[in-house]
Write a structure and sequence with these properties.
Distance between the termini: 78 Å
Order of helices and strands: HHHHHHHHHEHEEHHEE
Structural class: alpha+beta
Number of strands: 5
Helix content: 55-70%
Shape: elongated
Strand order of the largest sheet: 1-2-3-5-4
Largest sheet: 5 strands, mixed
Radius of gyration: 42 Å
Number of helices: 12
Amino acid sequence: MDSARPHTPVAALLRLCLHALLGGLLALAAVRALGDGAPHAGAVIAAVVLMAAVYAAGVALPAVRPRTSAAAVWLGALGASWLALLVLSPEALWAAFPLYFLLLHLLPLRWALPAVLATAGAAIASFVLHGQPVTPGAFIGPLIGAAVAVATVLGYDALYRESERRRELIDELVATRAELAEAERTAGTLAERERLAREIHDTLAQGLSSIQLLLRAAERALPAGDPAREHVEQARHAAQDNLAEARRFVKALTPPDLEHGSLSGALERLCAAAPGPAVQFGVSGTPVELPTPYEVALLRIAQSALANTVQHAGAGRAEITLSFMDTSVALDVVDDGRGFDLAERRPKEETSGFGLPAMRSRAQSLGGTLSVESAPGQGTAVAITLPLPVAGAR
């Protein structure tokens, strides 16, 4: 008799107890028949052996599983052998108790309950068949045993389902934690790449650009044919080569969204892939090439602002606009959502370290500003403005 459920130590122990209980009750019937010198002692022993053999066959057969036709056939054969023993020996009625558990375990509940009642009825009828005194206990005993068996099995099933739900919840929690850890590692890697790109651009690349400009000025100041001019020219070329190498490093550290296209293309893809509200993207002014830290900052701020719109604003539509002006570049993210009270939100945002403070920090790191306009029921507008760097410093 196999089980569709995992063979836990508790389930294995319960099965062993059921085997021992039925075996002990059958042995009791055989011993009582021999000890009392019953006229049908041989027939009782044969019926005991038959029922034990049928039971052992069902235990050994893998096909006997809960809610299967093989289990129903086996229970029918086991019940028939028990009825034969019940006719021969009054002691066989005690075997009804383990039979209750077998019926409830192997049959669907809609069939198991009638089968348990029929088994209890057969046990009660055995009192009358063997001339036993008919007392209230003769009726109450088998019925109480049936009720205990039903309550026990149903309670165990409820505990098992609850245990399975908890196990699934734990598995889901472990998987979620693993995904979260992977997302945090990815975010940390991207943040470190952005930091390195910004540091290289703001320090090494800017320094090399300044050195190149100074050397160019020195080269022009030296007269032609001056031996020092040749050394200055070589130094300028070396600075130029290293500046190009630094810019290649910065480009290699660019976020994946910017690796194969422009900032405008990355923002357009971001709007197209946003779930929830319809998001439109537009460009104003004449686009100019921006340094990688600028593109990274604008893209990340757009991602963060749009994520807030999708998760919290309840907006029907939103719009992202990238504007190029003479001395600055601006990014506006506007939605028609529920909005919020800036006076109430600001203390929470300032202490959380995320959301608006993170976007404002990105803007300030590049000398820019970030402003937010919102009111309950009037949507939200986030605007970031970055000053364009001079041409020689890009």
